[in-house]
Design goal:
The chain has about 230 residues and is of the alpha+beta class. It contains eight helices and eight strands; from the N terminus they run H-E-H-E-E-H-H-E-E-H-E-H-H-E-E-H. An eight-stranded mixed sheet has the order 1-2-3-5-6-8-7-4, sandwiched between helices. The longest helix has 17 residues. The protein is globular.
Length: about 230
């Protein structure tokens, strides 16, 4: 670990998150084969189509750079999914990364399709750089909603991301309702700005204007330290 947070503290934090899910009836597994993930998530009821950022036909998703989390109910049926990927933005920043379409495509010119455009109008995105983890493709089955699992979703993802990468930032792009209902807050995101991703991908059926939410490395360390001591 490259910080003042010990391996034991991170293990406790992840363990507590896993227990929170388990008591709600979720058995969690983790993987890094995104071909498998696409198959697992293809027909989930009410789930939005997967963005190109987590599709192996569009993005570079080697095991050291990306992982997914799947929660199954007691009958073994998929009840929750989410995914994370790491981008190396040492020579650029998040605003440029989003605006260039490289957040979604390894080769935008080949994969984005005609009429595609992206811009980031969140001022703080210019200050987000280094090792930056993107948290997305979050889905929770209808019968598991209202059980306080937003906290679990953030904690399990943040803990595993820290254990694998120790990122400088973790961010997500979320719809208005996530902000209005406080979902992003409960997941652990401490900052928010509108128009973080104004994205048009006609060939992929995407036309969005989403908020940028994020947490810094120091804030994540503080969260892990406080919660592992409980």
């Amino acid at each position: 670990m490259q910080s003042n947070v010990t391996t034991l503290e991170v293990s406790k934090y992840i363990g507590a998150a896993n227990e929170l899910g388990r008591t709600s009836g979720l058995h969690v597994t983790m993987g890094d084969d995104f071909e498998e993930y696409v198959e697992l998530t293809r027909r989930l009821p009410g789930k939005s189509p997967m963005y190109p950022s987590f599709r192996p036909d569009c993005s570079d998703l080697p095991p050291e750079k990306a992982f997914w989390i799947v929660g199954r109910d007691r009958e073994g049926r998929v009840a929750h999914v989410q995914a994370m990927r790491l981008d190396y933005l040492s020579n650029t920043d998040l605003a440029e990364h989003l605006g260039s379409l490289k957040a979604w495509f390894a080769s935008p010119k080949l994969k984005a399709g005609p009429g595609s455009s992206s811009r980031c109008n969140a001022p703080s995105a210019r200050r987000i750089s280094g090792l930056v983890a993107y948290h997305g493709d979050i889905w929770l089955r209808q019968d598991f909603r209202g059980r306080g699992l937003s906290t679990f979703i953030g904690r399990i993802a943040f803990g595993l991301a820290w254990a694998k990468w120790s990122p400088d930032f973790i961010y997500a792009l979320v719809a208005d309702w996530n902000i209005e209902k406080g979902v992003a807050d409960r997941q652990g995101y401490l900052h928010r700005e509108p128009h973080g991703s104004v994205l048009h991908l006609p060939s992929h059926g995407i036309d969005d204007d989403e908020w940028l939410v994020w947490v810094t490395r120091d804030e994540l360390l503080d969260t892990i330290s406080r919660n592992s001591a409980m």
